[in-house]
Specification:
Layout lengths: L4 E6 L5 H11 L2 E6 L4 H7 L3 E4 L25 E4 L1 H9 L3 E17 L12 E14 L4 E7 L6 E4 L4 E4 L11 H12 L8 H16 L3 E5 L4 H14 L3 E7 L5 H14 L3 E5 L1 H7 L6 H23 L2 E5 L4 H7 L13 H4 L8 E3 L7 H11 L3 H4 L19 H20 L8 E15 L2 E14 L7 E2 L4 H14 L3 E6 L13
Parallel strand pairs: 1-2, 1-3, 3-4, 4-9, 10-11, 10-13, 11-12, 13-14, 16-18
Antiparallel strand pairs: 5-6, 5-7, 7-8, 8-9, 15-16, 16-17
Helix pairs in contact: 5-6, 6-12, 14-15
Bound molecules: xanthosine-5'-monophosphate.
Xanthosine-5'-monophosphate binds next to loops.
Length: 511
């Protein structure tokens, strides 16, 4: 059990995971938990501090989620953010109302009273606001410690206990001193020690996997992506030749994936068996249009191959997966507030009853932590700096039914994109870039002849952690080049569009 743990109770804010992310950056282990966590479950985890996240609800509505008041008597410091602060106020008999001036975006925050929460923060600084409600009367046992122009109660503190609330979002980068505020809360108020160091994590993981596996065997499906490669390296360090890596070629992979796998196997010294399952996967997806169904089928078929392979090897008790924290957060709702977004194939697709026990060494890590771990482990650069690629691969970038022709069209387009990203020096400046083949056809004119072909979309995003993203503002010459080359060189596409939506409201992949 982590001795220095902060738990974030999630009330459904789009920024909740960012709170956990920021605190990990300070070096303190944090878990994002459902707001439904009971007091006894909280005590079992033994946190040194609790953060109540923001959320889309209003505390004055009947069915809004609330925490139990007992939480305030555990003697554990508490920080409420936005909805979290409003909830604290309501529960201590303050008043929360719809704001007269809704505030979204940058605001100038002014500290009114000295507080441990504001150490090393100037009296006046920019913060990020995003709220429709506000506290209009502070509970009697609290006092105001800060305000903005349009929000006179923007930060509060309990008169005796370590309970704080801020109306703004310190987890968002636009709050200039957000990280200082978190440091004050986590290190000074909660008295955590920054012991969350990835090197320690690695050593502990290796030891615990070795103890768990003992003389059994572990099977790992490796994809050529960062997460499964890092997982393979950790497990190989733990159990050596008891690890059996298989690369299932679903036919939905990029050309470079096989090469990456070959490089990894050579560099890290462990064998990887390649299984050609192209026909099998294509057959299983015949007639399937629904994205969730595709994902579930792919998950199931992966398990089918794992089971088949494990029977050949014999005595395989463990299945390892490269699941990371965002896969879990996005696949399963924390409470009932946030609906599941999509079943990441390695989370949603697994059958309830499986003969394997799971080993998922990365499931509490964010993407950039996995990358740092990969660096430490000596994972080859082409894998380390490769854009992420979803497990179901091209099958979820072909909207609607998948067939051989569409796969071939998409592979050719992806290959052109990859060449141009390198030529323009853009590949490493963006977080992820790919093409989506749409199930609609449009009319065009090519060489004086009418054409009626598919439309494809280019998607290029920038993101820190893949939980939120913005569209990358690419140079026009690049967009033009991609469009010209794909339309001229790929039979089957006669129109390109550029997807400029951010996440949220869209997701990065289209399915
Ligand atoms: P979304 O589309 O959910 O994607 O905004 C966030 C990141 O996750 C990748 N992704 C997946 N990765 N299995 C994976 O391993 C999946 O099923 C899956 N679906 C999406 C996506 O490419 C992006 O980087």
């Amino acid at each position: 059990m982590q001795k220095n743990l902060i738990i974030v109770l999630d009330f459904g804010s789009q920024y909740s995971h960012m709170i956990a992310r920021r605190i990990r950056d300070i070096g303190v282990y944090t878990l994002l938990c459902s707001y439904k966590l009971s007091v006894s479950e909280i005590l079992k985890k033994n946190p040194k501090g609790i953060i109540l996240s923001g959320g889309p609800c209003s505390t004055y509505h009947h069915q809004s989620p609330l925490i139990l008041k007992e939480i305030f008597y555990l003697n554990i410091p508490i920080l409420g953010i936005c909805y979290g602060m409003q909830m604290i106020s309501s529960l201590f008999k303050g008043i929360v109302k719809k704001s007269i001036h809704k505030e979204f975006g940058k605001s100038c925050f002014i500290i009114d009273q000295k507080s441990l929460l504001f150490q090393n923060i100037p009296r006046q600084s920019n913060v990020w606001m995003s709220h429709m409600d506000e506290v209009t009367k502070v509970p009697e046992t609290f006092h105001v410690i800060g305000h903005t122009d349009s929000c006179s109660i923007a930060a509060i503190q309990h008169n005796k206990k370590n309970i704080y609330g801020v109306q703004f979002h310190p987890e968002v980068k636009n709050t200039k001193y957000g990280i200082v505020l978190f440091k004050n809360f986590v290190l000074t108020i909660c008295q955590c020690h920054p012991t969350w160091i990835l090197k320690n994590f690695l050593q502990k993981k290796i030891y615990s996997i070795r103890r768990r596996v003992q003389k059994n065997k572990v099977l790992l499906g490796i994809s050529g992506g960062l997460d499964s490669c890092v997982t393979a390296c950790i497990i190989y360090k733990s159990v050596g030749s008891s690890l059996y890596c298989i690369f299932i070629d679903t036919g939905f992979l990029l050309e470079e994936d096989q090469k990456n796998i070959h490089d990894l196997s050579k560099k890290m010294n462990f064998p990887i068996k390649v299984i050609d399952a192209k026909k099998h996967f294509l057959h299983q997806l015949k007639g399937i249009n629904d994205p969730e169904q595709k994902r579930k089928i792919i998950g199931k078929e992966f398990i089918y191959f794992f089971q088949k392979e494990s029977e050949k090897i014999g005595n395989v008790n463990f299945l390892a997966q490269g699941t990371i924290y965002s896969d879990i957060v996005e696949s399963s709702p924390m409470g009932t507030l946030r609906s599941p977004i999509k079943s990441h194939h390695n989370v949603g697709g697994l059958p309830q009853r499986m003969k394997f026990k799971l080993i998922e060494p990365l499931k509490k890590l964010f993407k950039d932590e996995v990358k740092r771990l990969g660096k430490q482990l000596g994972v080859p650069k082409n894998i380390l700096y490769r854009h992420p690629f979803p497990g179901p691969g091209l099958s979820i970038r072909i909207i609607g039914e998948v067939n051989k022709r569409k796969i071939s069209i998409l592979k050719k387009s992806e290959s052109i994109l990859s060449q141009e990203l390198q030529k323009f020096g853009i590949y490493h400046l963006v977080s992820q870039a790919f093409i989506v083949l749409l199930p609609i056809k449009s009319v065009g004119v090519m060489g004086d002849k009418r054409s009626y072909e598919y439309v494809a979309a280019l998607r290029v995003v920038n993101t820190e952690d893949f939980m939120t993203s913005t569209c990358s503002p690419l140079p026009y010459q690049f967009l033009e080049k991609i469009s010209n080359r794909i339309i001229n060189e790929v039979d089957g596409i006669n129109r390109m569009v550029y997807d400029i939506t951010s996440k949220p409201p869209s997701t990065i992949e289209w399915e």
